[in-house]
Amino acid sequence: MYGLDGPALLLMPLLWLIAGVRPTRWLCAVALAVDAVFLVEVLGDLAWFLDHDKRWLHVALTVLPAAAVCVWTLPRLGSTRDSWRPSRAGPVVPAGSAALCAVLNLYLAVVPHERITPGVLAAPLLPAAALLAVIVLLRRRDRPRGRLARVTVGIGMALVLVVALAVAAITTSTVTGYDANDVAEARSRAERVPARTGRVSTEGDDLYFEVRGSGPPLLMIGGAQGDAAFYTYPAALLADEFQVITYDRRGHSRSTRNVTDFDISQQARDALAVLRATGHDTATIFGNSAGAIIALELAARHPRAVTAVIAHEPPMVAFGPDRRSLAFFDAIGRTSRLFGAEAGMFMFSVPVGLPFAAYGSIPADFSARTAESQAYFVEHEMQDFVHYVPDLVALKAGKMPIVPAVGMTTQATNRYYGQPAGTLAERLDVPLVVFPGHHMSYFDLPRSWTEALRVTLHRTASVAGR
């Protein structure tokens, strides 16, 4: 059953919408079957990316409209082989309400909320209820004459719902520590802090890097799509105290892609080559997501080059192991092979659950460069990262501080990439550090997020100096 929750989640709105326009026995039966598959996934705890605290919502939005269709529509459809399309309110309305419920189900599955409050529920439910009332009124009156008029009304109502849900998502998706002035201040700082750029040749490829500030070296390693601009804001904010080194990982953005065989140990050697190219033999290493995995590998294989590691939300789903997430990543691989890397990347991106504000805070040059890297990540890197298991013996033998970290929003929404940090802290017997925000809050909470990183850097420096 693993991997069916996503397709069912996407199919339900489409199937119920078609059933509402032209109800037939077979179409309603297919929609009910997809409904049932999703319900089994939710009740059986097989849906890998749905929040546990939203389970009752998913059940309600699946069962109630399906029951209405069964009770009201199916007996009337059973008397004919084709569609049954009355001019007044009748069997079509339950299918239309099921379509609205399926849209809300999709909305509540994708939009992250740390807490389900009355306001969070009211924001999407009220416009959906208003739209349903309009549908009922239109059914009770004479329908608009002409196909063009009917299509125009349908498209208009759909646009109204989409806009209403977009506004609801922007205003209700919660992030711990959000400050509207955060991004503006960080952008201003980034424009004022100069970055020295350079390249280093290593193992067949040229790696692009940037250096900001002066002081103790801090090497920051990016995750999926591996661009140095992941850390544009924190690098500028930390430049008053640290020499911050960022780089484009092998195969991404301004680094070359001559070697296509992916190897995490080679990624660790790349980080070491960048560090030495900037004139340092040792540094504190920070990594987020896949970059945290590379940081752990660097500490395990080259401990003399590492004074401390801060591993923020490494997605080591095999480390638990988290079998549901592993099955889903296998499904992403199959989707990518069948329908292309873009479909695989979309499937990967949706359940990450980033607030909409985060996308508006991403530097423009970052988005332009990383679009091409998406396929490379899905096809060459993703499976190695999610199946990575750290060498705990080597990490303990290295005796450098290892700091597993997780975002507060990530914890609250129980995301798959947050759990391994807790597991790592438990097995290394070290504290788990909690940052503000989510998986990529260095974009939309750069100031508060960076201050949490600064405090953590000071603590690791005091521990390493003992």
Automatic annotation (TrEMBL):
Record's keyword annotation contains Repeat: no
Membrane-spanning residues: 6-22, 29-50, 56-77, 89-110, 116-138, 150-170
UniProtKB keywords: Hydrolase, Membrane, Transmembrane, Transmembrane helix
Domain AB hydrolase-1: 216-321
A Pfam family recorded for this sequence: Abhydrolase_1
Entry GO MF terms: hydrolase activity
Domain of life: Bacteria
Keyword Nucleotide-binding among UniProt keywords: no
InterPro entries documented for this protein: AB_hydrolase, AB_hydrolase_1, AB_hydrolase_fold
Name of the protein: Alpha/beta fold hydrolase
Organism: Plantactinospora solaniradicis
